[in-house]
From TrEMBL:
The protein's name in its UniProt record: Uncharacterized protein
Recorded superkingdom: Bacteria
Organism: Luteimonas lutimaris
Length: 117
């Protein structure tokens, strides 16, 4: 199945995460976030918010061409330290020597709102 004109399965196969355990890569220094799998990242990019669709398309092209990793995920306070609960989640995707933060809201499922490098 295609998204943005890119082969979805080929993109997922390029993921080089610890969970998938590709042995030809140096993975001992990468921590994985076991709740987010490669197919989840592809779905987030495919269903990104309108404002993030251009960046999502560009990142999807990179993911389809190069090996990539889901290197971490964390909650983000976004400068509002008085809040205990926050529905913003960040997923870090590493591809082509760069890290991209996928800023998602959880309402109740994850929705990609913006991407930063």
């Amino acid at each position: 199945m295609d998204f943005y004109g890119i082969d979805r399965n080929a993109t997922i196969d390029h993921c080089d995460s610890l969970a998938l355990g590709r042995h030809d890569r140096d993975t001992q220094n990468i921590s994985s976030w076991n709740r987010i799998r490669p197919e989840h990242v592809v779905d987030l990019l495919d269903q990104a918010a309108t404002d993030a669709r251009g960046d999502a398309r560009d990142l999807a092209v990179m993911l389809s061409r190069f090996a990539w990793r889901i290197s971490s995920g964390s909650a983000s306070a976004q400068g509002n330290s008085n809040r205990i609960v926050n529905n913003v989640r960040e997923i870090t995707v590493s591809v082509a020597g760069r890290n991209f933060q996928l800023h998602c809201t959880e309402t109740p499922s994850l929705k990609l709102e913006r991407i930063t490098a």
